[in-house]
Fold this protein.
Amino acid sequence: MKLFVDTALIEEIRKLHRWGIISGVTTNPTLLAKAAATNVRDVIVQICELVQGPVSMEVVSTDAEGMVREAREYASWHEHVVVKIPMTEDGLIATRQLAAEGIKVNMTLIFNPNQALFAALAGATFVSPFLGRIDDISWEGMDLIREIAAVFRNDPHITTQILAASIRHPRHIVEAAKAGAHIATCPPQVLRKAVRHPLTDIGLERFLADWRKLQGQG
């Protein structure tokens, strides 16, 4: 399973990209606002140049014509731009048109297997089921990943990738991988928590303490 980072903060992306495990980035209007991105195009292009992988940029239009117009503009910015389209009737119409034009689509706000299947049939490159938001309403978000993965496996013509979104904690990452997600997009703080373990910290400190003792004896 690949890992994307869910942020529009370039410095955060740069730091995490140095780990060598980040394959792409997802953004949305909320994340761009948090990053105080006054020139959105420049920010997205910088991110694309940095990660050299898929970078999702979301439309704000709600009608198919507007979505297609925005998507064409965003896709012209850089070859790595993937356009985020919401799962609506107009979103499906737009996705079908964009896929026919060779523009990659990340269909977002997926909350049931039917939506994921329809997105795949419309030509979406990625579908983004929102695990955390499903958990918030007392349903099991990971079951959704399992169902979508099972549906996609049964049709060899489906090449759409499952991009697990709304990751809330490190356990979501490994569970998404086990459930069949192709990608998990994670906030920076979740990635940092996932790389840490108290026993690693204790073990490192003990090794360093023993080394200092050895040096003192020398």
The two ends are 47 Å apart (CA to CA). The longest strand covers residues 81-86. Residues 2-217 form a domain with the TIM Barrel fold (CATH 3.20.20.70).
